[in-house]
Amino acid sequence: MYKNKSSNGSNNICGKKIKELRLQLPEKTSQRKFADMLQIHGLDLDKNAIQRIESGARFVTDIELKIIAQVLHVSCDTLLDVDISYLQ
């Protein structure tokens, strides 16, 4: 039976990486400020949604993942922590 959870029981596999990268941004970037940055790029998430994503309590759609990656200036693969070297 298929389950929509990661191996650690989280609803996403990108939340921890998103938090890590958000905290590494040049200016101190709170979850609220990050939500504002996403809204400027057309993704309507609030601080609570960011908190739930980072904690793994909320699913992340592909559209959301793409915009989050753009705002953090990384690839979607970086957020998913995907090692694509085995494909080459």
From TrEMBL:
PROSITE patterns, A to Z: HTH_CROC1
Q: Which residues form the HTH cro/C1-type domain?
A: 18-79
- The protein here is known as XRE family transcriptional regulator
Q: Which domain of life, per UniProt?
A: Bacteria
Question: What GO molecular-function term can you cite, just one?
Answer: DNA binding
One short Pfam family name for this protein?
Answer: HTH_3
